[in-house]
Amino acid sequence: MKKQHHILSRIFVILVILFLYVPIFVLMLLGFNESRYNSLPFEFTTKWYEEMIANEALLTAAKNSLLLALVTGILCTVLATLFILGQRYLSRKTSGLFNSIVMMPMSIPWLIMGLSILLMIRSLDFTKNMGFVLAGHVIISLPYALLVLRARMSSLDKSLEEMSASLGAGPLTTFRRVTLPAIAPAMVAGGFLAFMISFDNFAISYFLIPNGVTTLPIEIQTSIKFGFTPEINAISTVIIVFSLVILLIVGIIMRSNLKEMLGGKK
C-alpha cells in the first residue's frame, strides 16, 4: 500500500512539472520554427531572432526594462543593507513596526499596489513619470532583498564586530573589514532577486509608465494584443534563458553563503 502511494505521488509530481514546464519548452522550440503561424512540420530557423534584433520597439523596451531593473536592484540592495544594520539599534517594538511596514508589499497584490500609487499621483495632481515607476518597483522588490540579507545577518557572529572594536577599530573600519565582507554575498543575491522582480514586473509599470515610454513586459503584452508574432517567442526565450542564468548565479551565491553560515556555526 505504501509503495503504491509512493508511486502515485511520483506520478502526480511528474504531471505537475510537465504541466508547468512543457508550455515553456514548446514556446522556446517554436521560436526556432520556420512557420510564422507556429504550424508543423517543424523547420529550424533563426530568422525570428534576426527580426527581433531588428525590431527597434522591442530593443528600446528591453533597454528601458534593463535600466529600470538595474537601478531598482542597486537601490534595494543599499536600502535593505541600511535597514538591516540600523534595525539592530532600535527597540524590539520599533523594529517590529518598521519591519511590518517594509514587508507589507509582499501581501498586497501588485495590481492593487500599482492602482493605489496611480490614484495617489492623480490626487496630488502629479503627472506620471519614470520616477514613480522606479519608486513602485523599489517598494515591491525591497522586501525580497531584505529577506535574503536578514537571513545572513541573523547568522553573523556579533563577537567579530566586538573584537574589532576592542582592537581599536572605529565603526566604519569594522563595517568595511568585518561586516561588509560577511554580508556581501547576501547583498549580491538580494540585488539579483530585486533586479528580476523589477525586470519581469508588468502591473506597476502598466499603471505608472508615462506616455511614449514602454518596458519589455508592456511591449510584449501590446504585441500579443494586436496579433501574435514569432518575435515574441524569440524574446520570451531570451528572457527565460536570462532569468535562469540570474537564478543560477543567485543559487550559487546563496549556496556558498549557506556553507559559510554552517561552517561558522560549527
Q: What is the overall pLDDT average?
A: 82
Determine the N-to-C terminus distance.
Answer: 41 Å
Major beta sheet summary: none
Percent of residues in β-strands: under 5%
Q: Report the C-alpha radius of gyration, rounded.
A: 23 Å
List keywords for this structure.
266 residues, mainly alpha, 11 helices
Tell me what you see in this structure.
The protein has 266 residues and is mostly helical. The chain is built from eleven helices and no strands. The protein has helices at 2-30, 47-54, 56-87, 92-103, 110-123, 130-154, 158-166, 171-200, 203-208, 216-225, 230-265. The protein starts with a helix and ends with a helix.
In short:
The chain is mainly alpha-helical.
SSE order and pairing:
Layout: H1 2-30, H2 47-54, H3 56-87, H4 92-103, H5 110-123, H6 130-154, H7 158-166, H8 171-200, H9 203-208, H10 216-225, H11 230-265
